Structures are given as C-alpha cells and as structure tokens.
TrEMBL record:
Record keyword Cell division present: no
Protein name: GNAT family N-acetyltransferase
Domain N-acetyltransferase: 6-172
Entry keyword annotation includes Transferase: yes
Highest taxon above the source species: Bacteria
Pfam short name (any one): Acetyltransf_1
PROSITE patterns assigned to the protein according to its UniProt record, in alphabetical order: GNAT (PS51186)
Record keywords, A-Z: Transferase
Molecular function GO labels: acyltransferase activity, transferring groups other than amino-acyl groups
Amino acid sequence: MIDNDIVYREITAADSAAVIDLANQVHGDNYLNSESLAALLEGGTVGNKKLNFLAEKQGKVVGVRLTLAPGNWSIDQACTPEEWPVEPEHICYFKCAAVAESARGLGIGKQLLQKSINAAADLGCRAGLAHIWLQSPANSAYEYFSRCGGVLVNRHPDRWLQASLEDGYYCPVCDGNCRCDAGEMILMFDT
C-alpha cells in the first residue's frame, strides 16, 4: 500500500532531533546521538550529492535512511571484503534504516533505500553493504533487506557489544548489553 501523503527528501541538520528520536525508538537508546548523526550526515555527503533521506507524513518524520559514501566508512573486523563482488571504492554503506511503527507496511523503507541507491549510483557505486540486525523482532530487518535484493555474505556475532559497553547503546532485544549477530549483506545495484 502506497501512501501519497508521504514526502521524501534529503536529511538536513535541522532534522537531527527527529531523526535521532526515530532511530533510537527503533534500534534502542543511544543508537544515535547528535555527534554520531552529524558524522553520518557528513559521511553521506560528497560535494553536493547527499545519500541520507527521510520520509515525512503531515510534517512528522516517519522514516529514515542513513548511508555512507565509499571511502567514508571503515572496513573493520565485521567485514569480509574478499567475498564482495565489487571493490570497496564502488560500495556505499547502509548504516541505518528506521520506519515508525505506525507507518510500516507503506513501502517507506523501500522508497528510502531506492533514493539512497540512486544517489550512490550517481557517485559510481555498484553495490551497498549493510550489517543487518539478525535478532530484530521477527527477523524483519533480514527479511526486508533480502526482499530488496540483499545477499548474506557472512555472520558476525556480538557486532554491537562494544557500542553497548563503551558508548551506552541499549539493545531493546538483549535488554542491555547487545549480543546480537549482524548479517553482513551486500546489495548489487541494477543501474
């Protein structure tokens, strides 16, 4: 079901409070803060091209997609670049997707993802990488990203444990210190 009252646009600094609030409602307290969001917005901007988008309904933010441009994200121990079908300089990083519970099922997540893909493709990206929360309620994150074309590359246990211990992230599934697994997934672009 598509809702014609949804407006999609680039995220600006003025949207910070609403973006942080929605992401923390969906992913857990302290998932984002003003400093981390500012860094993500900067990392998702190359020249005048922005990869971060939101969805609004009646002036209220109901969806968010945060994406980092190639070279603006770290290939860490939870990455398996030797398994990626393209070189890292052609891969963006899908950091965060959040849709308000009241707006789920309207295609907002898919529309936001497509906007990020289109913008990333303009930068020469051919794929996007994500670490999908495998313990999300009803494993909805994995199901959603798979339906969008994402393919599992590897599984990484305790992906967000360090954020729990050092940054105050509170996982809503683990009721505190996060022991959730991340599914390293790649999504090839059809552009």
